Amino acid sequence: MGLLLAATFVLLRNANALANPLDAPVWLLSGLLVPVTVLPDWTRPVSWALPTTWGARAVHAATSGGAAVGEVLTPMAVALALGAVYALAAVLVLGRVERRARAAATLSLA
Q: CA nearest 11: which of 96, 86, 91, 92?
């Protein structure tokens, strides 16, 4: 997800003003701050699309004790798969953004 946000740094000089406020909602929706079950029902599908949700589930299952191996490996596998999808999307988006910036001669290295 960070790589997807990195595309904005190529286009916008002050992209950190956009990226920084997006951290807390991702933490909240992924269950790192509060359990996902206490959030409104409409947020659950959004949280399922975040790899950090599945990573948090895997860590919780691994540290709670008595969890079966599948209860740890399944969320880990989903988190890795979602991470790979986001990485592929980021490579595609960054390629398009870079070509656009080069064509418009707006790629600033300073």
A: 96
